[in-house]
């Protein structure tokens, strides 16, 4: 035989609850939320649905227990190594002075720590992340070969009379100067 139940809409959960009832509570502090309570065969047995406070509490507990990834900041490699010994989850570690790492000349570096195998992987550094470029991998490069470019650079030169040299040209197979055929004249016209 089914038992009828009551549904109540309130702003505060009453001090005495009725058996076989559902209480929908809209607290004054959170008027846009509804909390739900359900009673059993007596008003003293009550269950409730989780609410925003419960969710936040679960998140906080997860963060405290090390169940979440984190970003840590330490002064140097020695502090990084000491921190790694205490970590209980994956983490990113920013080392402000990572110069004790043989691959870092100076400055900071960021490491990814993998808890499952306690490994550290450098993922960035302030000095350039050990970038090694290859001519073949450069986009937008000149079509000339490196050798041809180096040869052209070695042959470059400058002239103090560049203005005059730039006047030399060619027209109809004849040399020109300033756009005209060169003019020659006689120094003497005595005969």
The count of DSSP E runs of length 2 or more, i.e. the number of strands, is 10
Task: Decide which structural class fits the backbone.
Answer: alpha+beta
Biggest beta sheet summary: 4 strands, mixed
N-C termini distance: 148 Å
Question: Radius of gyration, Cα only, in angstroms?
Answer: 42 Å
Unreliable spans: none
User: If strands are numbered along the chain, what order do they take across the biggest sheet?
Assistant: 1-2-3-4
Précis, in short:
This protein is α+β, with helices and mostly antiparallel strands.
Could you describe the 3D structure shown?
This protein has 191 residues and is α+β, with helices and mostly antiparallel strands. Helices cover 18% and strands 28% of the residues. It contains four helices and ten strands. It has helices spanning 52-64, 77-84, 146-155, 162-165, and strands spanning 6-10, 21-25, 35-39, 46-48, 70-76, 91-97, 109-114, 119-125, 168-171, 174-177. The strands form three sheets. A four-stranded mixed β-sheet has the order 1-2-3-4, with no helix packed on it. The chain has a four-stranded mixed β-sheet with strand order 5-6-7-8, with helices on one face. It has a two-stranded antiparallel ribbon with strand order 9-10. The longest helix has 13 residues, at 52-64. The chain starts with 5 loop residues before the first strand and ends in a 14-residue tail after the last strand.
What's the topology here?
Elements: E1 6-10, E2 21-25, E3 35-39, E4 46-48, H1 52-64, E5 70-76, H2 77-84, E6 91-97, E7 109-114, E8 119-125, H3 146-155, H4 162-165, E9 168-171, E10 174-177
Parallel strand pairs: 1-2, 5-6
Antiparallel strand pairs: 2-3, 3-4, 6-7, 7-8, 9-10
